[in-house]
Amino acid sequence: MPAGRFVVPVVPFLALLAAFAIERLPWAPLRAGIVVVAVGSGLWATVDFARGNENTGRPHLELARTRAVLEEAWGPLPFVAAELANRAHLRDSSLTPAVQAALDGLVATVDRPIVLLSGQAGMVPFHVFQAHYGKVRFLDLYGLTDDALVRCLPERNLGRSIFGVGPSEGWLLAHPEVLERCGIAPPDVVYGVNTNAAKRDALRKAGYAIVYEQVGSLRSPYSFFSGAGNPHAYVAIREELVGRVQLPVSRVVFPLEFHPDRQAQSSRRR
To answer: Is the dihedral of CA 136, 142, 144, 149 positive or negative?
Structure first.
């Protein structure tokens, strides 16, 4: 993401600058040699990147199967092919309908705006807010799409990273009095990535139950461009509201394998 934002826009300029510099070299064989090395290095780097874990793309041969498996579990989905061709979007392609299902249940039964908290403010809110515009309030942990937390919280409680400025999720959920002083209702739904033990414990102590999670790997079955990626994500709901929500799927293991909601029910009983 940082490379996409800050490096990619200057690459065309650097390529033109290199071409002008090579053209000014006095010896033709030297110019030809530099061009061959540059083109060869570029091709090698492109293929190496395509095979590596940093590449977020996926072979297009997988797209039809991916959509079929997703829609078998969630029903018709609004995603275009370009969204399913990206590993980060593939992670969100199953997370999005899970958040949507949670909001569907709460919006229909709670007579007030639903508060949604996350540091993921891209594909998921783009889709879910189309269905519930004006009925859900989004709190952005990184202060990019909503600055309510950044404007209200003390400077000492705001972390800084390449993703933005804001409090940690665990700290914010552990201090509901801070939100109260800011005039912000506590989140009803929290979703995000990487459900490690510390995050699970923080959610439980704050009174939230995980009703949906994703685990596994986004590695492609095509060995040459297998890549990798972390699909881990979760949706958590305040415990007193869990009974208002019914998700058709409670757990997804990548490569795409779905588990019905009865597992979520049994885990909550434990």
So the answer is: positive
- pLDDT band with cut points at 50, 70 and 90 for residue 236: very high
- What percentage of residues in the chain have a pLDDT greater than 70? 91
For residues 258 and 221, the answer to whether their CB atoms sit within 8 Å is no
- The pTM of this model reads 0.78
**C-alpha–C-alpha distance, residues 14 and 20, integer Å:** 10
Domain map (residue ranges) of the chain:
2-51, 60-269
Q: Are 254 and 62 in contact (CB under 8 A)?
A: no
pLDDT in tens, 116-133: 999 988 899 999 999 898
What letters, b where the CB count within 10 A reaches 16 and e where it falls short, cover 55-83? bbebeeebbeebbebbeebbeebebeeeb
Residue of 118, 133, 132 lying closest to 235 (CA atoms): 118
CA 236 – CA 192 distance, rounded (Å):
9
DSSP string, 96-160: HHHHHHHHHHHHHH-SSPEEEEES--SHHHHHHHHHSTTTEEEEETTSSS--HHHHHS-GGG-EE
pLDDT tens digit sequence for 47-82? 887 777 777 777 777 788 888 888 988 989 888 887
Q: How far does Cα 118 stand from its chain's mean position? A: 10
